[in-house]
Amino acid sequence: MKTKAYIPESNISELYLNIWKSGKIDRSLFHQIQSEINCQSLKSSDDSKIVSRLLYAVRRGWLSVRD
Asked: What are the helix (H) ranges across 1-67?
C-alpha cells in the first residue's frame, strides 16, 4: 500500500527555486507534485500556480525528470 506524502506548503517556493537552478526534478517528486495538483490539496492559489508552472516546464522540456 502506498502512503501519500504531502509537500510542505512553506517549502514550495524553495522547492521551485532549487528545481529551476538545477534544471531537473526527481521522478518521485514529479509524481508527488502531479498528485498534489490533481487532488487540489494546495490551499494557496500562489502554491497552485507554482506547481502548475513546474508541470508546464516539464511538458515544454525546460526541466528534465530524472530517476
From this structure: 12-22, 27-39, 45-60
23: alpha, beta or left? (left if phi > 0; alpha if psi -120 to 50): left
CB atoms < 10 A from the CB of 18, how many? 11
| Distance separating alpha carbons of residues 4 and 24, to the nearest angstrom | 22
pLDDT for 23-46, tens place per residue?
999 999 888 888 877 776 666 778
Average pLDDT, the chain: 81
Give the distance, in angstroms, between the CA of residue 26 and the centroid of all CA atoms in the same chain. Answer: 10
